[in-house]
Amino acid sequence: MFQEALKLQKTTKYITQGIIFFSLFMVIYTVVDGLNMSYDEMAIEYSSLLVGVNITINVILSLGSAMLMNLSTAMVVLKGKEGKASTFGSISVLFGILTYGCTSCVIAFFASIGIAFSVIALPLAGLPYKLISIVLVVIGLVWMVREIEYGECKVNLSK
After folding, report:
1. Residue 115 banded pLDDT, cuts 50, 70, 90
2. Which sequence spans correspond to the domains of the chain?
């Protein structure tokens, strides 16, 4: 079944969808980085190596999240149901917004929902939190592949 999902990924619809998801996630991760600390400030305070690592992680996270969304769409087509693992990409984005965001933004967000605390200083411009986000996306991808390959199917495809 996973081979069928991979075949779908090569169609024009899924390639276009993947590019749109990738672009959207790149914008989100870049904006979140900018809210935390601009790339210029990051290069001055830490090094340009950290800027390169952050941008590389943004690309990895965006590719992984886009793949999760595409695989989830393929699972709906193949099995008639959405995979539970597709939420890991969204959780990763939400996690990023709540942890990398500028202090005033996060405090305002938490205050608006009645929580009066915020994340304190983030080491290395939030790099450890990005690594946690990568782990969330990888867990989502592994889970999605398992759901596609071994999950229950409402329709009997064998003849």
Report:
1. very low
2. 2-150
